[in-house]
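Memo to structure team: turn this sequence into structure tokens by end of day. - J.P.
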Amino acid sequence: MNTRKVAEEYRLSKWAGIIQERKSSGKSVKDFCFDSDISMSAYFYWQRKLRETACEKIENTNEYTEMVPAGWMQLATEQQNKTATIEIEIGDCRINVNKETDPALLKQVCLMLRSL
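Reply from structure team:
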């Protein structure tokens, strides 16, 4: 790890502590910064940097893997056939109709079934 990265992480951790201290104090940002002799622009700069770093870490993780509780196993989902179908069942006869079924053929089958 290079020195710039180490220095950046040190500053982030320092400011994370300062921001947490402000939140637990219950003071407004303005009052906290005034009492702690911190400029508000520096406070908001480091708050933004911390949020950006947190967002980068979230983006780099596989969300689906993280959502599976410990001790559980994630199974691959099966692709389902999403074509719309109608199933007509009369006695022992079953007909499946989808959008690709020829209307003339369907008409003939229905007439045949009606005559039975």
